[in-house]
């Protein structure tokens, strides 16, 4: 083995990959990885099982190869094999990819908190460059908002000032605000654009009060050209911060600088906000983003799928658009589930399996609509012992930790997951599951299953883990 390509370089390779692929995908596909050898320019990595090897080779061959070459240019190719020694704690050539992800995360978090310094002392929070005014699908209830953003992006400071966008959660306010900021940066390269959230604005304010730099801080705002503040409703009740915003607002406004704001309701209804601030928010134009209608939901779904190079049959897309009516974020979330399902299990989205998946993911409206015809027949031979053993191996924790009573966090999700699968995939009753898990009461089991459902709504990683375990068990 070459002396220079050590586990240290492997760590850099993994961190490089962690930075460049989606977090959920990374967490799903990259677990433990070992360095086996580097011979004739080919580096061989080891993973825990054939399942992971095949998935990595199928999905991430190019990324792993590219990252390896990037870190160590003498490499010309890669190979991945199953390493039977990977669980050996003495083996110094193994790294845990999730730890490397945390490293990357910690670095990124720092950037996230402090943002990018646009003007000396004033930071703009990271703007997602995927948000653009061009990829915002305009529907009848967002037409005005989009047109106003478009006008402001063409002539910041002179069309509508301030621009205030409001609407319910998940309907595209952040997309519009960041999209406008991105377009302004593209069109007017010399302008200094600062995007922040009301929350961050508050944190920055408090920090400057503490360090007694408020005067200077306020002065610095004079040199920015566009100030974007998302979710101003969070300033409710924060009187001093409101005063500060009022001052900054005046400084910028008088200098003809553009101000763009968003809130969850019209300025008038922002109770707990100083009336003078409310009225300033109304000086320019206030526009709302409303619920998208069926056609718009369908167009959004198709455009998001297209952006990810994923094809959805028209009927399936219509089905989703018809049933997922809550908000756009939910539509995106369903799309992510479908893509994950396809990636992990190779199942293309058909009307039946999408309906089934949606009902499993407790999209409320659907559960009633699909009803009994989509219940799967459970003919699996999988026993509860198989299931618990697989969960234990998957998470690398002991069986007794899963069925026991230990309330440590790292055991909770695996335990809830095992219970959930017994209930939902193997049709065990809560009572029977309770008996397996240290004689727990059936309501405790029910609570655990419900808890997991809630976690899955927020944390896609758990959904992925669940799918991986189902794959292993064939349930
Ligand atoms: P809000 O800030 O209003 O809570 P977001 O802007 O975060 O909502 O929107 C949630 C998600 O839905 C984002 O990923 C956004 O890109 C997407 N989205 C919302 N409305 C649209 C739209 N009209 N066209 C395209 N994507 C949209
Ligand atoms: Mg938002």
Could you list some keywords that capture this structure?
binds magnesium ion, 475 residues, GMP Synthetase, Chain A, domain 3, binds adenosine-5'-diphosphate, 55% helix, Rossmann fold, four-stranded mixed beta sheet, 21 helices, globular, alpha/beta, single chain
Structural write-up:
The chain has 475 residues and is α/β, with parallel strands linked by helices. It folds into 4 domains: 7-103, GMP Synthetase, Chain A, domain 3; 115-289, Rossmann fold (3-Layer(aba) Sandwich), CATH 3.40.50; 294-374, Helicase, Ruva Protein, domain 3 (Orthogonal Bundle), CATH 1.10.8; 384-473, Chromosomal Replication Initiator Protein Dnaa, Chain: A (Orthogonal Bundle). 55% of the residues lie in helices and 12% in strands. The protein contains 21 helices and 11 strands. The strands form 3 sheets. It has a 5-stranded parallel beta sheet with strand order 8-9-10-7-11, with helices on both faces. A 4-stranded mixed beta sheet has the order 3-2-1-4. The chain has a two-stranded antiparallel sheet with strand order 5-6. Helix 3 links the parallel strand 2 and strand 3. Helix 11 crosses helix 12 and helix 14 (351-360) packs across helix 15 (364-370). The longest helix is centred in the first third of the chain and has 22 residues, at 50-71. The two termini are 42 Å apart. The model is unreliable at 362-379 (pLDDT under 50). Bound molecules: adenosine-5'-diphosphate (ADP) and magnesium ion. Adenosine-5'-diphosphate is lined by residues 136-137, 142, 167, 169-175, 300, 328-329, 332.
